[in-house]
Amino acid sequence: MFRSRIIGTGSSVPRKVLTNKDFESLVDTTNEWILARTGIKERHIAEAGESASTFAYRAAQSALEMAGVAADELDLIVVGTITPDMPTPSVACLLQHRLKASRAAAFDVSAGCTGFIYALTVADTFIKAGTYKKILVIGAETLSKITDYQDRTTCILFGDGAGAVVLSQEQGERGILSTHLYSDGSYSDYLYMPGGGSLNPSSPETLEQRLHYLKMDGNKVFKVAVKSLEEAALKALEHNNLTGDDLDLLVSHQANTRIIGAIAKRLNLPPEKVFMNIERYGNTSSASVPIALDEATRQHRIKKNDVILLDAFGAGFTWGSALIRW
Fold first, then answer.
1. Does residue 283 carry a catalytic annotation?
2. Among this protein's residues, is 113 annotated catalytic?
3. Model confidence pLDDT, tens digit, residues 154-173
4. 0.85 exceeded by the pTM?
5. What is the mean pLDDT of residues 280-305?
6. Catalytic option among 155, 180, 253, 256
7. Can you give the residue ranges of every domain in the chain?
8. Which residue in 115, 139, 235, 263 sits closest to 178, CA to CA?
């Protein structure tokens, strides 16, 4: 049986940093309030001329280098993003050209903050089917481009960046054990961006109404997120006849320390088995899980045969998990 094994990871974030103190002069908030409510201290923000493909390219280079794989060996590139450089072509196609990955098919996946888990699942399915042998999977976002810096409830949350993994088709017990995807569109008006699509195409009116920014009901999102992330995590463990005690590390979507803490408590995980970097990056949507995974790898928090759980929740609503034997 073929498995998808992660043989390389990479990440990239902008140089520019916005701290909680910086926000005190922008909106009615304080460093103490932001830290207590979210766990975020700072976030990296793209500058003019930087886009999702900017950071996807850098993360991809890093992952390919770790994997020892040349770009022209890739069969497929899948990018999870809700902030592409432009509506078309896809970030994946722009990346394929820039990497000179001439053999690779390429497309984007839009699933909010669960985008990387969705993209990983697509790639894993191709590998298990025997269709492709080497796949680059990326989560890349520039959420600052769609963040309303007059809305104090959302602007403090989001950051930019990208994370990448290289998957290889291999045999054996190591690799992705299973992935689990879910969605419920009935919650779509809890977290959405109303402007810029075919319903509200760009116009002077949509700009004036600030429709091209994310809108979120934070309290409602929080409640559904905790329940959904628990569901996805427990399903992954149950599917593989494992429990929280069998986990070596939880790498969850970095949206809020209280959400991550609730999931860890449900799985009975001690702090040393939970990876968090939200204090330095904020919520980077589909980039958060692969950025965290790359940091965990490079900090030697993961070793051969460790059981790793990836877990994410996002707009749609979408949520999902992936269980990996490293």
1. yes
2. yes
3. 999 999 999 999 999 999 99
4. yes
5. 98
6. 253
7. 2-173, 177-325
8. 235
